[in-house]
Structure formats: C-alpha cells, structure tokens
Write a sequence for this structure.
C-alpha cells in the first residue's frame, strides 16, 4: 500500500469514526423498508463498518487543485460507497452485502415516534430507494440540489432529477418537516429498543433437535428388534387436530368458484397473496394459533372463541402488508388473522363470521396503522370507493385495488375524544357475475376484523300497511339520515357488530310551526346475536350533520328488528318561544299514546305533543293496534 492510498484509508477511517451515527442513519433511510426494521438496523451498521476503501486500491481522486476541483474528502468517499451499497439492495435485499452484525435471541428496532414520524415512514416505504436517498442527502446531509444530484449520479442513480422531484412531491403531500422528523428517534438506528424473538419457535426448534437426536440414538435398537430392520410401517394416521397444523392440508378454494356457487360467503374466497406457497410461514401461523407464545398479542371480538383449529382451515391470504407478514384463515365460523412483524411478537385476531352473506363477507381488514387501514376484498367485488358520511352530497372517490384484492389505505374515523370532523366509509359494488343485480352498499370500519354493513329503513309510506325492510344506505335520503347519526357509531367500536340499521320509524310535526322532526331507531346487530338500540330525535337543524338527541336506549333486545317491530320514545323539546314540550312518537302499529305522571296528555295516530316543564317527569305508554301496550324506551 503506497503512502497516498494509506492516507486515503486513514481519512476514510477517521470519517467513519467521527460521523458514524450520521452515516448509519443515512444507510438506514435508503435501505428497503421491506427488510423489516431489525434487519435494516443491522444492515445499516454493517454497510458503514465495512465502507473503508480496499487495501491496495486507491480510490478515484480529483485532479490537482490548481487544475480543477479539490480532492474528495474521506467522508465523501465513504458516503458514496455506502449509498451505492444501500441503493443496490432495492428489489434484491441481502444480495451482495458485506457481512452484517449478528444478534442472537433479540430483535432490534428504533424507538417509535409519533403520528408525524409514522406518516413519514409510511410515505417513504412507498417510494423507491433513489427518492429516499435524495431526501436523505437534502435533509440529513444538508446538500444543495446541485451537489445532491451529482452525488446521486455518482452513486448510480439513472435519473437523479426525477428522484429529486419525487422527493419534493412526497414532502408536499405529507406536509411534514422532513428534516426534523428524519433526525428523530424513529429514524435513528444507533439508539434502539430490543425485544426477544419468537420464544415459542425457539423452544420448538430445541424440542425438534432433541427429538431427532433421540430417534437417531434409538434407530439401531429398533432395527435389531424388528425383523429385517424395516420397523412397523402400520403406524396410526395423524389425528384431525394434527392434520390441522399441516400447511399441506390447508383448504384452498378455486379462483372462480364464487361465480358458480349458491353459497357466496367466506367459503368462496380463493387463497391470495404472494406467500401462499410459503410452507414455513403457514406452519408458523398455524403453530402460533394452536399454541400462542406468552408474549403474543391476542384480540377476539365479543363472543368469539380463540380455541385452536380442530381441522384444517381454509387459507384466504398470505403476504406482506406494510412490512408485516399477514396470514388469514377461515375455519367455517371464524376468521383468524395472524400478523408477524419483523421486529415484534406475533399477533392473532379472531372474529366470528358464521352465517355471513355476500355483503358481510365482502371484505376484511388486512392491515391497520395509525389513522389508516386497508381492506382485502372478496373476489365478487368489482369496484370500491370511499365517501364521507358527514358530507352526504359529495360523490364517492375511487380506491385503487391491487391484483391480489388489497386496497390502498383508507383513512379511519377519529378515535374517542378526537372529535368527529369526518367519518369515512367504503362503498362496495358487487360484480354482475353473481347473477343478480345486487346494489352498491356501505361498509364501515369499527376497529374489528370485519367491517360493519350500514343500512337504512325509510319512514312509513302514506297508505302502506306494512313497514319496508332495511335497504342499502346509498341514496340521498339514506345518506342525509346517516349524516346526522354517523358520529354515534364510535360507541360500537370493537363490539363485534355485524350490521347497523337506521330506521326512521316516525315523522312528527313540531309545535309552533317549527317544521317536522324524524324519530330514528338505530339498531346494531352483533355476530353473536344480541342487539342494541338507540332512539334518536332529529329536529330540523341548521347544518346537515348536526346530531340529534338520544331519546331512548336498550341492550340485548329485539326492538327495532323484524322480531320486535314496535317502538315508542319520548323527549323534552324547547320551541323558539321558550316553551317546553313533551314530544312522543311510536312506530306504525302504535295507534295512541298516553302520558302520565308529571305530564298528563293523550295523543292519537302515534304522536303526542303537550306543554310540559323542562324537568317534568312523565311515563309514556303506547297503545298497539292489537290492544297491547308498549312502554317508551328510556335514555
């Protein structure tokens, strides 16, 4: 090694020592997010630690200072080498890499940031490596556009200008202060947290090794006892429970079966995703389902069993969703979603879905993050769009769907305590190949594995003796009704709700010419059977999204369903004159109303309006057409 080469190496070594955290952060940013954070952390350290020029090979230098630019610094040389190695990993992670540090029994990952850091990280994972490199050179390295473009070109980026334009567009779309966020703990692979790897998997490997050793040790003895050394080949067949853990026995529905069957539900879903042939992944998912490790996170909707599979389940999906390996099974009555993050313990989510139909089995939540989620669509859904229930007049906007049925991200409704400025829902349109002209329908995400079907039952039509059944909530009257009641859906989160119907069971003229009010019974039916109801009083309002007042509630009831088609409710209401009234209304079969107690009044034709003190207590009872009586629901 000559003196100039030795000097180059020494300068590069000094640059690595002095700027190690900065270089590792840049490498971590450029490396593919699909590696997972644990592998990216180790790979970023490995790239930097082995970025020294090779001994005996002098790096390219500039011409003498008097004839052109000054020679490159050791830091510039090291940074360029790191960029080239990191960019080369795009689309083929792990190939051509120098040896990386090895960590046994632990997963490493940077500290979690806030919502802004998460949003930026998700945006970065959706762009190619040259764009991430352009952002890193601008915000981590502080280079101007011309210098950054030159570095990108030397690192092998074919269209450096396009990468810089895409980087600027990403920053504008996210609205983030990229420089501050990229220098936060979320993107710092030098300050990491640790977690154990899958303890169950490690224990299984140890047991398997011991079992193999025992078999090898006993092999000679068995051969000596059994004539010919062939052993007993009439072993018992595996039990059904054992077969359930064999990936080769998973049920797989043919791709087009949904178009030629009378049972259109989850059983008609084909297996989709790029990893449906990964037997190791499927075996891990089945193993965790059968015997979850102690640190596994398990979620089950109300009334859903978490028991192990009793027979081979049906495979619905296996693939990578936002850097998380996801597998979804269906065992005839439950959906089981297995998630395997690269840097965390596995999670299981169980949801009951027995007796599903083409609408309630039209999709499931395949991925979820901070403020967003993705659906996996049924094969019979030809189109999906997103609309805001709080903007009933706005048309839905289309949503891109990948070939494997996974949608782009959809914003989720605000969480508890975060107000109610929007309520996004998905509008699904079934394929005409089902053989029936099924209308479009709405599904809402309420933090469960399966979305909730929203319907609407209009007010009783004049002259009709029967009540219409629920219909899809996609026409203007339905959307206007849901605009005033949507924000109360938040109380149903995580309750295993199957469908929610808004039944406008009565309309009532208000005293003093104040217009007409609508009485709505919102019924939420769960997958396990019981339902809850809330009666809402909707007087005329200045804004189409102004919520109504709760007039009555009931749990574990058949009210407002086909098995309980009668309902009565009352509320105190103040007119503009300042006068308070007791208002009451009943459904179609209520032919009279009687108020007793602090207010004594009688109403005919299913409606009552009587002056009453604001706090006057009254008991309202409805008289049904068949002579029975029905008490008003209480708030």
């Amino acid at each position: 090694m000559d003196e100039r080469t030795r000097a180059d190496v020494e300068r590069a070594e000094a640059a690595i020592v002095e700027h190690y955290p900065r270089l590792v952060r840049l490498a971590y940013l450029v490396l593919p997010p699909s590696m997972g954070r644990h592998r990216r952390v180790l790979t970023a350290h490995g790239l930097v630690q082995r970025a020294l020029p090779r001994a005996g090979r002098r790096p390219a230098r500039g011409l003498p200072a008097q004839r052109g630019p000054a020679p490159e610094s050791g830091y510039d040389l090291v940074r360029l080498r790191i960029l080239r190695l990191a960019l080369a990993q795009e689309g083929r992670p792990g190939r051509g890499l120098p040896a990386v540090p090895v960590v046994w029994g632990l997963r490493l990952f940077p500290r979690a940031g806030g919502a802004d850091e998460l949003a930026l990280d998700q945006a970065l994972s959706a762009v190619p490596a040259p764009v991430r490199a352009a952002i890193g050179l601008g915000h981590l390295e502080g280079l101007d556009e011309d210098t950054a473009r030159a570095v990108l070109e030397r690192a092998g980026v074919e269209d450096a200008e396009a990468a810089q334009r895409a980087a600027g567009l990403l920053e504008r779309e996210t609205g983030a202060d990229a420089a501050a966020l990229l220098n936060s703990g979320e993107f710092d692979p030098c300050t990491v947290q640790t977690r154990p790897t899958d303890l169950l998997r490690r224990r299984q490997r140890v047991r398997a090794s011991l079992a193999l050793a025992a078999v090898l040790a006993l092999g000679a003895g068995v051969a000596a006892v059994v004539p010919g050394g062939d052993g007993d080949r009439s072993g018992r067949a595996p039990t059904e429970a054992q077969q359930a853990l064999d990936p080769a026995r998973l049920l797989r529905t043919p791709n087009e079966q949904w178009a030629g069957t009378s049972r259109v539900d989850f059983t008609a879903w084909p297996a989709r995703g790029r990893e449906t042939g990964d037997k190791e992944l499927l075996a891990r998912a089945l193993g965790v389902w059968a015997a979850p490790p102690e640190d596994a996170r398990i979620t089950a909707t109300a009334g859903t069993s978490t028991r192990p599979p009793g027979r081979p389940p049906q495979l619905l999906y296996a693939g990578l969703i936002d850097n998380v390996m996801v597998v979804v099974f269906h065992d005839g009555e439950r959906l089981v979603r297995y998630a395997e993050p690269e840097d965390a313990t596995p999670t299981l989510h169980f949801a009951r879905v027995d007796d599903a139909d083409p609408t309630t089995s039209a999709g499931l939540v395949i991925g979820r993050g901070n403020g967003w989620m993705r659906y996996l669509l049924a094969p019979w859904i030809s189109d999906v769009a997103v609309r805001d229930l709080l903007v009933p007049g706005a048309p839905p906007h289309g949503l891109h769907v990948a070939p494997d049925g996974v949608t782009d991200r959809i914003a989720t409704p605000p969480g508890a305590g975060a107000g109610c400025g929007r309520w996004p829902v998905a509008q699904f349109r079934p394929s005409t190949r089902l053989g029936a002209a099924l209308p479009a329908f709405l599904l809402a995400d309420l933090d469960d594995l399966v979305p909730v079907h929203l319907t609407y039952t209009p007010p009783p039509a004049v002259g009709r003796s029967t009540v219409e059944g629920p219909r899809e909530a996609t026409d203007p009257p339905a959307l206007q009704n849901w605009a005033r009641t949507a924000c109360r859906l938040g109380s149903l989160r995580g309750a295993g709700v199957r469908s929610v119907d808004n039944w406008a069971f009565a309309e009532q003229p208000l005293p003093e010419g104040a217009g007409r009010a609508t009485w709505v019974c919102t019924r939420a039916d769960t997958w396990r059977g019981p339902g809850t109801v809330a009666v809402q009083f909707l007087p005329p309002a200045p804004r189409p999204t102004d919520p109504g007042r709760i007039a009555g509630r009931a749990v574990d009831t058949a009210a407002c369903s086909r098995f309980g088609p009668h309902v009565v409710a009352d509320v105190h209401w103040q007119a503009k004159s300042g006068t308070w009234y007791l208002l009451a209304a009943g459904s179609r079969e209520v032919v009279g109303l009687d108020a007793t107690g602090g207010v004594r009044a009688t109403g005919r034709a299913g409606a009552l309006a009587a002056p009453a003190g604001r706090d006057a207590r009254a008991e309202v009872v409805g008289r049904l057409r068949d002579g029975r009586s029905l008490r008003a629901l209480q708030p």
Summary: DSSP finds 13 helices and 27 strands in the chain. Residues 56-71, 204-234 have pLDDT under 50 and may be disordered. The longest helix spans residues 199-225. The first strand starts at residue 106 and ends at 110.
